[in-house]
Every structure is written in C-alpha cells, then in structure tokens.
Amino acid sequence: MSPEDLARIRAAFDAAVEHPESAWADVARSELADAPHLLGDALDLLDRETRLAKLRTQRAFDAALDDLTEQERQSWIGRRIGRFEIVAELGSGGMGRVFKARNLESPEQLVALKVVRPERFNRSLAERFSSERRILARLNHPGIAFFVDAGSHEGLAYISMELVDGIPLPEYARQQDLPLRGRLQLFMALLDAVAHAHRSFVIHRDIKSDNVLVRPDGCVKLLDFGIAKPLDTESLRTVTHERTFTPISAAPEQILGGAVTIATDVYALGVLLYELIAGRLPFEQSDRRPGELERLVLNVPPPAMRSRQDRRAGGVSESIPDDLERIVAKALRKEADSRYRSVEQLQADLGRFLANEPISVAGGGHTYRLRKFIARNRLAVSITALAIALISSALVVTIIQNQRIRAERDLSQTTLSVLEEAFRSADPSGLAGNRTTARDILDRSVDAIAPLEQKNPQAFVSLASTIAEAQLALGISEPATRLLDRALPIAEREAHPDRNRVLLQLARAEVEQTYVSVARNYLSRLDSAERDSGPALIVRGRIAMADKQWAEAEFLLKQALPKLPFGGSEWVFAQSKLAIAIAEGGALDRAEQRTEIAEHLYGRAFPDRQEVKAQLQLSRLEVMDTAGDHERLCEDGARVVNDIRTQIGIQTSVAGLAAARVGAACQRLGQNELAARYQRMALQGFEPTLGLEHPMTYRTHYNLALALARPKQRREDVVSEFRTAIAGAESDSASQRAVINLFRLQLSRELAKAGTDQSLRDALRAFSRPNDPVRVSDIPAGDHAEYGAWANYLFWSVDCANAHQPAPLNSSTACSASLQKASCQNLRDLLCGINDVAASTGPVSTR
Questions:
Q1: Read out DSSP for 650-686?
Q2: pLDDT for 132-182, tens place per residue?
Q3: How many domains does the chain have?
Q4: Domain finish residue from 362, 386, 421
C-alpha cells in the first residue's frame, strides 16, 4: 500500500472518530467516496478501535472471561459449590462471576456467590480474593452488603455475601422522581457506609452507580469490595499500576498509578453525587476514544452540574444551588490534597447545606451568611423587610450620587433620554417604538458612542447594551449582534458589571436568528450564579423550543417565572412562550387555561395597565395558531382583536399582531375577503410603529396581495401590494434573498394574468431584472421546480427565443446561445442553471 493510501485511510479514521461511534462508518464512506478501494481497510481499523475501547474500559475480570461461551455460562446453573446451589447468573464482579445461589442448609436464604475459575486463578487474583474475604469479614454496617461465607470447592474459590434486591442509586432516584433533598438524604446514608469502611481501614476504590444499590424499602447498600484496599501504613506508601478501576469514576491518581487514599473514594463519591443530581456524568464515555476520557479526568475541570443538568436522564427538576455546586467541585478537585480530607467532612458540608447553614467552601462572607440566616428564618425576616427596603433605597441613591462621574454620566443620560422619549412616544405597548424614527436614532446612537470604545470602555459597554436592548425589542437582531460583539471583549477585559447582560443579549439575538448552537455557547459563558436567573432560563427555554423539545421548554419557562418581576415585560413574554410550548406539546386545553389564568392574575393586580393585558390576550391567539385551530381563530379572534384595539388603540404593534394572526387563519380557510380586512387592520398597527422595512409589515402587504388576488378584485390593487411588499423587503438589510425572490415570482405571475404581450414583458422585467437577476443559488432546493417552470413559461412566451439571430432558439440551442437582452440572458441562465442542479433527478423542461 502506498504512503498516499495510508495517509487517506488515517485521515478518514481521524475524521470518523471525532463523531459518535454509530456514525463512524458513514463518515468513513463520505471521506473515501472517491477512493472506495480503501474503505475496507478504514472500516477494519475502526472496528479494531471499537474493540480496543471496550478492553480499555471494562474491568479486569470481564477481560479475562470474554472467551466464555453462552453454553458454558448456562452450564453453571444448578451447579453446587460448597453449601450453595447456583440459581442464576447476576453478572461479573472484580475477580469472577457472580451468581444468585440458594443456601442448601437454609433454603429460604438466597445469597450472591462470587466464583473464580481455576485456570484464571493466578497469584494476583488469589491475593485480591483473599483480601476481599478479610475486608468483608471486618465490615459490619447496615449500608454494606454483609459477608456470609467463603471457601473452596473442587478447585473453585468462592465468597458468598448478602443478595441485594435493588437498583443503582441514580436509577432509583429517576424512577421515584425524587426531589433534591430526597436524593441527598439517600446519599448521606451511603456516606455513612463509606465512612464506616474508612474507619475500618478499608478504601473501596471502585465506588460507582452499579455498586450502590437501593432496595425497594429505600435502604442503600454498598457492594463489591473486590478491588478494595486495606488502609494501613504500607498501603499508603504503595503505588500500583493495576488498571482495575472504572475510568468514568476513577480519580486522577488512579489513572496515573499513584497512591490510593481516602481522597480517592471522595473523588468517586463526587462523581456519583454529580450523576445523582445532574442526571449525567461529568464526562461521558460512550463516544470517546481510548485515552481521551483519562485525559479529560486529568486535565479538564468538570463542568458545572447545572450546565449538564438533564431531567430526562434522571437529573433533578429543581435549579441546582451554588453551594451544592461548590461541594461537588471540591470533591472533584484534581489534587487529592485539595479535596475533602475525609468522608465525614463531605458529609458535614452536605448536612449544613440541608440545614441552610453556611458551608465550609463558600468563603464565609457577611453577605453569604446573612443570606443563609434569612433562609433559616424567613418568617422573622419578612416582618422587617419593608423597613429594610425603604432604608436601602435611600442609601443606594446616596451612593450613586457620590460615585457619579459627571462628564460621562451626562453623555449617558443625554443618550438614554433621547432613546426613552423616542420609544415612549412611538408605541404605548413598549414592544417596538416608532421604527422609522427609532431606527434612525439607534443608528445615530451607535455612531455617537463609537469614540467611547477607546476613551471610556466602561461607558461604551453600558450604552451599547442599552442600545442593543432597544434593537432587540424592535426585532432587528443582526445590528444588535454586531454592536454586542464589540462590547463583549471589552466587558470581559474590564470585568464590567454588565458582562452577563451582554452575554444574555447575544444569546437572545442568536436565538432570534436561529443560531441555536451559538446561543448555547454564550449561555455557557455566564457566571454560574447567572445561569439559572429568570432571563437566562427564558433563553434556555427558547432554545429548547427551537429544538422542538417542548417538555423541556415548558420546564425551563416555568422555572423562570418565579424569578421574574410579576407583570413585567419579561414575565409577560415568558408566559406567552410557555403557553406556546405547552400547545406545541399537544396540550391545547392546558395552554389556553394558562393564558386565561395569567390574564386574570394580571388584571386583578394591575387593572389600569391595559397594554400588558392586551399582550396576554394576544398570547391566546398565538396558542390557537400554534395548535392549528384556524376555524376558531378566525371566528373567535374577532372579539380579541376588537378588545385590543379598543383598549390600547389602533396604531399599536400589539393590535397589528392580533389582526395579522386572525387574518392569516381566515386566509388558510379560503375566506379571503375577511382575511384582507384583518390584514388591513394589521397594517394600521404596523406601519406607524414598525415602518415598511420591518418583516411584519412587508409580509403583511404580501399576504394582503395574495388575499386580493382573486376574481373580481382590481388587479392594480394586487400589483400595488406586491410591489409594496418587495420595496419593504429590499429596504430591510436582514431580509433573506429567498423572500424577495418569492415576492417577485408572485408579482410576475399576477402581471402575466392579463395575457397581453405587454403584460408578459412586464412580468419578465418583474421576475428577471437586468441588474438584479434571480440566481439558482438564491432559490431553496425544494422550490427549483416551481421557479424553473415559471422561467420556462416566460422564456418561450416573450420574444427572447424568437428575437435570437440568425434563427429562433429551440431547447437544444437555448443554453449555449448568446442573447442580446439582459433580462432574457438572466432568465435563460436561471433556467439552464436549474437544469444542471436537477440533472440527478431529471431536468426541468426547457420547452
């Protein structure tokens, strides 16, 4: 095999193993599509990698007994060993097979029987087997599977111990849907058992979920001391190179072959506690190459539990408190000396956490201790809360006045005053503002604060964040992203107090533009205390909605609501998105009930704030729309639209959104006259507040044109609406090319309906402008046939073909000829380009 072939195989191999194992073969085929003769070698190499990965991560006993056949396994059933009769196989232990067996001298007693085959029984296994016998004999604790008997029979060494009828601790917590406190109480029982083992001078060395079972009665049992080590002076000095641990829970010193101590078990307990709370391990093993997991354990700090919290995988449903994050992080430190020095210390901190007392790793500041005092004494503290609030507000005002830097604060106040006035006068609902005026002000404001980027970075970040907030409210996410991209590096370099706000705004902007993975990245960079804040939970909920994970979105948005100011804009937004998530999940009745309850609660608390009540009413229409209940939306929506227009006025964006939703529903039902009426109502709300270049405005003009494009309607009105929609889309810098092309296609079709030569030429110019052609690359693949058919019709219906010299064109010469008219040339290029794209499935006809 040539060096070049070897290089290709290795490249394919490297590309494949960067993906989950289930995708390896497909990736290799893709990488070697032009060299199929090398695929077999690459797949063989990947198969060897899979087998090696299994060997590197299974226990020593499993590797030693892999050659046993199923027939041989079955031959054990019914066999007598000592005073025990084997009933069934339970699995593999650290040194041998583990069976369920009956005590023949006491038939009602069932035990777990561990057996080692003589041909596998070397000196090392013999020493470990003997050690396990001694260890089990010295341990006497209700949380540890007790020792029954040990001996040998016909050359087979065996140990019998208590048979535990239970399931792994994390799985038990998942099945029982235990809250955080219930899980920690079970974990505390496990700590009692491990602490007993340590007091008996025994280190377990392999604490993991499979070795911690919970019986149906809730009793926790620690199993499998097969690789446990006596904790004596000699063993503390001993360094071992046996890889008999489980990599996913192994401490760094075990991987490095260093001394094993109490801290080793503390680390494994930290891994188990992490899995019990988050539902996932700190580092996953399933799709990693051999050695990669060990590298992560040795070099990479485990991510915060809340970043990997997965309720579906068994994690807790509550938010994970910072104190608990600190406790687990200390247990998982890389350096053994930096962890808890004993299990009792870990147990003490968890006890303090459960009692709302300060923990040892929280820093112990006055603010922290005060927060804990309040948590323990909520009733007493609540009595004085009002007085404290009044005093604090006066104190804050004084501090701010004393810290003000006049020059820059004057600039900030001027800018903010202009913005506030612009938006306040434009739209009472506060959703958008007068977009024609506001966007100009925003653009000028971005230019005005540019000098501060160098002169006063702190002020720049604050003002950039404020302007971006206004841009996001307007739905212009792209300019907001550009501005925030400038502010973030400064905020991080200067440790600016608005750093988290900027990260959240960037995440929101990316979700708006459907860049979900980018949004996740920004969220992961938030300070740990901010990741479970109300605004962060809203963004996480919207990401889940983008991924169509409706149950997760509902869970996150419900978590967000108590953390948001009741009745504020974020609270209303979260209520709206929550109702939509519930409806998308199929529970329409529950979603509608949610919006009605929110509207009722808000109406009682703030009877005079009609604009927010209108937004909640709009949510009811959104739920109907999400559920596809177009008939009820078209019929019952009229009352909601009238209520909103009466409450907050006709020229508001909320009134426009309500009318637009009802109009779209009527349009889907074919009730075009009614639809056109509501679309015109929508434009009354959008045009004075959002402006023509806003997507909601120009899309509504497009929908109105479609509703009017029916017999007996004035064609001039239809054409006018299409042209207005195109003008709006072309003036929106964030508009997608595919949207403009669609509008031009429909306008062209409408113009061609007159059937005259002039109307066809107008249709050609509308569809294929000389200096702005429709290109194949701008058309979604699924729309090639529709665009190709229309291009084909126009090309052969106008004088493009007949005007060609020296002779009229036909389908075999059209794609190679040079045409004089630019519009015909563009049209022909589009048509022939679509032919090329569609060649694999059959060409679009050119005649």
A1: SSSHHHHHHHHHHHHHHHHTT-HHHHHHHHHHHHHHH
A2: 666 666 677 889 988 788 777 877 788 888 899 899 999 999 999 899 999
A3: 5
A4: 362
